[in-house]
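Example record for the data management plan.
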Amino acid sequence: MEKLVNNPFLVKLQEMSQKLGSNKFIASLTAGMMSTMSIIMIGAICQIICAIGTMAGLFTAESAVYGYIYAPYNFTMNLLGIWVTLFIAYNYAKNLKMKMPFANAIDAGIIFVLVCAPLIDGKLDVSFLGSTGMFVGFIISFVVIRVEKFCADRKIRIPMPDVCPDALVNSFSAIIPFGINVIIFQGLNVILSVISAGALNLPTAIMAVLMVPLGTLTSLPGIFVLCFVTLVLWCFGIHGGAITYPIVMASMLEAIHTNALLHEAGLPLVAAPVFLYGAMAAVGGTGNPLPLSLLGLKAKSKQVRAIAKVGVVPGWFNITEPVIFGMPIIFNPILCIPFVLNSLFIMVLFWIAYQTGFIIPPWIMIFGVFPMGFGTYFGTLNIMNVVFEYLCIIPSALVWWPFLKIYDNQLYLKEQAAEAEEQNKLEEESNR
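Corresponding structural encoding:
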């Protein structure tokens, strides 16, 4: 296994990862997404409590209690695009050594809401303020901060007398660059709206462009392509499921309905290719990251161990964000590769299991957040489907392990170097 870990391809991958991490914007993306951990965890905890409560019959999804518990989720996960944009913009402005990174981040946040929450019939459309709008947030963070950096470097600002307080001077200095950003993004929105007769804005246009080549991919080879695209998009911070799930949802509902009729008639169920879409999220959510968390519990790196501990329970509930944003997997080539490969491998295993009759296709419509195996059982009423999901932890872990070992070693060396540097500083101070 050591030979596998040290082969030239993986060594080159490690070098590429280090170069990618040194890019200021990529570093800001990573830092920004990791900064959302507390927001994500609170949202995940509320989601888990709601799922357990409804499963135990303590309350229903229509009850007031459910609404009170679920409310923090709406303001954390359902507004995740805003928080990610703010954190990324702040870190990017800080990395570029701008004077007021917090104010720059606020500007990016305002532009994000302006673009992603347009007024429709007098009401705000908030559908892109969550994770579906994150990719737009990445673009906005980059452009807004670069425009403000450009203006700052070239002193494009409203001049103020020297006697004015710094806060007032800085506030007036931000007017022109912020105005330029408003013109850029609102201008794009208006142009798209006019061209499309009101059907498109910037976020919907981006989603529309991404969905065009995916519209017919529901055959057996097509579903593998569709899932591959979903996973790769996640690797670049785009909520792949938000783009591809609408493509498969109608086919999935139709296939489940057909199986319900077949089951009622006592006929064999049909394993439609579209059911493999769920296999890429069978072991801990999209990308099957639960084995990564389990393996990470024994890692040498403190960071990996900490994220692994945080990710195990949400992963059991098929909530991937703590691991995807915490490790992170996004914009991390070392972990992106197994994120994609293990999911496709599990899809193949599911296809074989369907064809051999080891598991059965779903015939009951079940949607919601459930612990691993629960949703599968409620959708099939077949215990072997549950057993198979847990068996899939093993092959998934085998794919994750060599890549995690590389990443763990990389972080461990950085942590050791940081600790040694800190120890040297303490010794120098004690010797003075």
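Summary line stored alongside the record: Residues 35-212 form one domain.
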